[in-house]
Design a protein that fits this description.
Elements: E1 2-6, H1 11-15, E2 23-25, E3 29-31, E4 37-39, H2 47-55, E5 60-62, H3 73-85, E6 91-96, H4 102-114, E7 119-125, H5 128-140, E8 149-152, E9 154-155, E10 164-169, H6 176-182, E11 193-194, E12 197-198, E13 201-202, E14 205-213, H7 215-220, E15 227-232, H8 238-244, H9 246-252, E16 253-260, H10 263-274, E17 278-284, E18 288-292, E19 295-299, E20 304-310
Parallel strand pairs: 1-18, 6-7, 6-15, 7-8, 9-14, 15-16
Antiparallel strand pairs: 2-5, 3-4, 10-14, 11-14, 12-13, 16-20, 17-20, 18-19
Helix pairs in contact: 3-4, 8-10
Length: 313
Amino acid sequence: MSHSVASAAPYDEIFARIERRRIIVPAGFHMDSVGQLTRFDHMLPTAYVRRMRAEALKPYPMAPNPPPPENPHRYELGAVLYAALSSRDRFTMIELGAGIAPWCVTAACGLRALDPKPLLLVGVEAEPSRFAWMRQHLIDNDLNPDAHIQIQAAILPSDDWKPFALFPRGVPNFGGHRVVTDLAREHETSGVTESPHFDPGQDTFSLERIEAVTLEMVLDRLPAGPVDLVHMDIQGIEERVVAAAVGPLTERVRHLAIGTHSVAIDQGLRELLSGQGWTLHFALESLAMNHVGDAMVDLSMDDGFQHWINSRL
């Protein structure tokens, strides 16, 4: 088992600004430390979620705190808030592999509480159920979906793009981009049945054609000007997507928050982005025990995370 040592990120200063207060949470919802409401029906049905859902049949009191230092979610949350609070007169964010767009909504809730300003949120998600849930998630958090951009599509690198990809339909809790990269090239037609294993069980889906876009295409749909944050959790193709779009990213994007899915991808992104003048602000290594200040973040069986800042912007 490998070990990684990281200095404590300055996200603690942001968490210290979040007001702690007891709130009555609506029945059927979870609330996080920035006030984001999420339907339990839209969450991965882990044992914790099933227990909380059973206890949330009526409104209940909650005083949410940021995740503790040993929880990797703390640092992803901190990076998103850092990028949002570093924005200028307007905040623009893209979330790739967005699911219900929790990180877009995290940024919106953080700004609402700490630094209100106009914002544009862009969520890109291929799976049909999650895409529909995304609009509802925005509404649940007092955000008008029609004032933002939702794109139902799979993300592919521009050097290997085609207008569609085969994507799983009907299993919204499964990591679909892994299917795109691992299975789609084996099949030239839709309707192929697969039976994936995923926490907490197994399901069966049919691969169906769905639109595919590149990161450059997404950037081109936005108004001219800088993009404050691109967040991506795209199940193993993140290095290829970033490499193919590194020029436009460096020209327009201020922050990158990247979920990484292998040790090789961790290293490949470090070499690629540092070579383009980006600064690695914080990282958790994949498949490693990460020391962050006095805390131990155990990712020995899990994905990593990198927060990059574009020193040119």
